[in-house]
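Re: your question from the hallway

Yes, I did run it. Sequences:
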Amino acid sequence: MRRILALVPLGDPALPDPQAATAAAAVLAVQHGVAAEALLVGRPDQVEAGLRDAAREGAAALHAVAHAGLGDPPAAEHVLHLAEAALEALPGPALVVLPAGAAGEELAARLAARLDGVPLGRCAAVAMDGLRLTARRATHGGRAEAVLATEARLVLAVMRRPPAAPAPIAAPAIRRSVSDMPLPAMPAVEVGPGAPGQPRRLEGARVVVSGGRGIGGAEGFARLDEIAALIGGATGASLPAVDAGWAGVSQQVGQSGAFVAPELYLAVGMSGTPQHLAGIALHSRIVAINPDPEADIFRVAELGVVAPWQEVLPRLIAALRDPAPDDTKDNERRRTP
Amino acid sequence: MQVVALLAGVVDPKWRLERLGLHGAGGLVEEAGLPRRFSPFDEATLETALKLRDADPALRCTAVVVGGPASDGLLRAAMALRPHRAFRFDTTGLPVWDPRAAATLLAGAVAAAGGTPGLVLLGREFGDLDDGVLPALLAEREGWHFCGQAHAVTRAPDGWQARRMRGPREELLRLPSPALVSVTNDRGNRLRHPLMKNVMLAKREPLEVVAPAAPDLPQELAAQALAAVPPPSRGSGACRIAAGPLDAQVAELAGYLRAWRIGGAPG
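Structure:
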């Protein structure tokens, strides 16, 4: 049987949920009757919290590689360097699971090239029978699925957090290594100043307020930002809206953008294409505002308002600003020690 | 110095995929009769290459459409934007679903552009079968400097400058040549419209098609199936449409949203 190991890069802002890889590996390990392992790469000050999190996510054998020379955030090249060295020493066939997201996908691809592994991409499911590994992954913008099989010694898959949480491990086996391996010199990365009114992060938001092509301009997105602020949510956008420049690249939700798992997703001026819906967790409840009663978004929404956003959003903002009796009571409760 | 823009194209998302499948012993992708178009990432890639050419007349811009004869329409669309050279790199009958095989083919496509490229650009997802693996894989395989998901690329004295969003922050990376940058869609790289005279010219011009030299492709990954899938079921499938005057509908919606603001879900 092949070992199942999560590779967890710590401290990368592009990976808001690095332990998703551990959770995915742990669920696979339970299904295949093996112990899940996790390899954590980070600065010394990040490792202990990372180990605790990995045990909570179901990894039974943990290996932490700490390097004081890693930056904040770490350069991809440096994480690659340390992970490559650790994985090279791995005996036997392995499935390495990395967290979904641009940084995880880049790391998986580059490690595959360096270690002669097979990169599978972003997998929805993986099954193993002895050495034979079968993976299912989305193609054609999430409208189709490919089933791929391999018996390669090293296979790398990127996976999202599974819907069901794995059982935590109370006393995992832990190995700590402090690496002093020379890290390759990297040109400095300039970090731009945070834009004023930088949108709140989509990942982890309980509520996402999202706009599509039907919003028609930046003015509508300003309204969506207002609503998001009023209900404590983050603002998202469809690919055409980002394309048009009404929202930033980091706000893009969908097969080609961020995967979000809010409790509530307010979709405004969106038709509801499969490519967009592929970026929203199945458990998220969708509420839609669209003037077209035949729009596909209403097939998946729980509540819908059939009207142009120009008529709905100003009224909605006014209504949300007006404290409801329940809100007042709630605020009073919060203020009372 | 040369900039090579690799363009994949995708099946037009407006078309249903019932005819999609695999055929042949090598598990070749069957998309017969499905119309193709540039993806937003292809368009961003091509526009970025054209912008670099516009800014520096010394740069040579080559557009390479990777695919079978069904992509000839895309090649003509690229030709209408007048890169210095445009050709189709024929991948008919090749297992483009295998990332390692596809990276080998793309390296061949870049080589077919001639000379050592200063910069290779391609979409952050290359076509319908890639979900972001290919750009990094190709860069690593060829030993090129890499930046993923850039939304703007400019010339720098010693190479290139790429801007990208990494989590909540914008990064500016300096990359020496040769470099590979995967491009994401953004307001600043929306594909320009071609001049009508250039569209007419591109319709009349002969197409250049380059066949890959018999590549030694890795064969450790097998495609067992490729098929359209129905969208996953979500919700109850019964959307409650708010009724009554608009103010009443908005009041209902506001009440629903307030439940989340104060921490609970509506019953």
